[in-house]
Amino acid sequence: WNFLDFITKGVLKNCEISSSRYEFTLKCEVCISKNTFSSSFIEKLHFESPFSWEFLPRDNPPSSAQNEFRNIFASKTYSDVTIRCSNDEIPAHKFILKVRSPVFAAMFDQDMLENKIGVVDMADIDGKILKAFLEFLYTDRVDKMDYDIAKNLILTADKYQVPLLVDECASFLKSTASIENVCEIISIADMIHCESLKSYALSFIELNAANILSTAAWTDLIEGNIKLATYILSKLSANIRKSAMNKS
After folding, report:
1. Where is the BTB domain (predicted)?
2. Sign of dihedral through CA atoms 47, 53, 55, 58?
């Protein structure tokens, strides 16, 4: 069957969004011949809209354990290491960092400088990102998330191998994707090999290509990552060919 120009069958099949709120109606023309009856099963598809993603804050209140660990983080009681960033330093606890991050575990289990002096330098992030990162390590939550935090925090989560936080940030970035920022989002996803976020951003670009390819952000992407830009254009070209074949 033929789809409208703004979406393709491939996009619908590859959609990864889980939601029961979106329904699609398939309109068909049916011809009925008298005195005969036949039926056939062609194909059954289930899909959801890829571009109404909402990042829903956790409605469930923090558990008592989460509150206790939040209090430990806030009070700094028995802290035995200091995490230092570009504009702040925060006391923390080695055992929590080790349990939550394989990178910290390797750092503290070996005879490394950070373990000897009790200081870990994370100079590539600022205090706001460091606080959000440590908050998640202690409580499994980030209560105050915004776009700027999410796009930086996902890089830190990837660097320190905290996949749950990567997923949390990726979900938020999907919820805030726009014509203005999707080029930055797909660049981040490509950098850390986050395929679900990259696929989502690519589908968003496919549906809004006319507007996105004329933005300064797209020009910046070409200049900064020609390989990624070429990949995106190849996907757009393939979709155009498929659309033309569907119409013929």
Report:
1. 79-146
2. negative
pTM of the complete model: 0.73
Q: Is the pLDDT of residue 7 over 60?
A: no
Q: 69 — alpha (psi -120 to 50), left (phi > 0) or beta?
A: alpha
- pLDDT value of residue 19: 43
Least confident range of 8-17, 145-154, 211-220: 8-17
183, 186, 189, 222, 224 from 228: Cα distances, Å: 10, 9, 11, 8, 9
Mapping DSSP onto H, E and C, the string for the chain reads: CCCCCCCCHHHHHHCCCCCCCCCCCCCCCCCCCCCCCCCCCCCCCCCCCCCCCCCCCCCCCCCHHHHHHHHHHHHCCCCCEEEEECCCEEEECHHHHHHHCHHHHHHHHCCCHHHHHCEEEECCCCHHHHHHHHHHHHHCCCCCCCHHHHHHHHHHHHHCCCHHHHHHHHHHHHHCCCCCCHHHHHHHHHHHCCHHHHHHHHHHHHHCHHHHCCCHHHHHHHHHCHHHHHHHHHHHHHHHHHHHHHHC
Whether the Cβ atoms of residue 169 and residue 136 lie closer than 8 Å to each other: no
What is each CA distance from 111 to 100, 108, 117, 119, 122, in whole angstroms? 20, 7, 11, 13, 19
pLDDT, tens digit, 9 for 90 and up, residues 195-211: 999 999 999 999 999 99
Domains, the chain, ordered by start: 178-247 (1.25.40.420)
